Amino acid sequence: MSTKTFNQAELAKYDGQNGQPAYVAVDGVVYDVTGVAAWAGGKHHGNLAGQELTAVIDEKSPHGRGVLKKLNVVGEYVAG
Fold it and tell me: In the record, which residues are listed under signal peptide (predicted)?
C-alpha cells in the first residue's frame, strides 16, 4: 500500500471548505479531521485545516499529541 505524500500546497487544498475534507499535518504525518465535530468547517480554536500544526499542538494545545491517536492517517507531509 502506497502512502500519499503532501507538500504545503497539496495539504492546503484539504481545508474543510466547500465540501473538501479537512486534513492537518503534525510531525510529518497527515491526519484526517473531517469527521471531528471540533473541526467543523475546517476550523478549531483559531487553527485552520490544510496546514502543518506541529508547533501548535506541541506548544498551545491542552490535549497535546494524545488526541492524534484517534484520527485516521491519510499520508505523509514533506515540507517544500
Answer: none
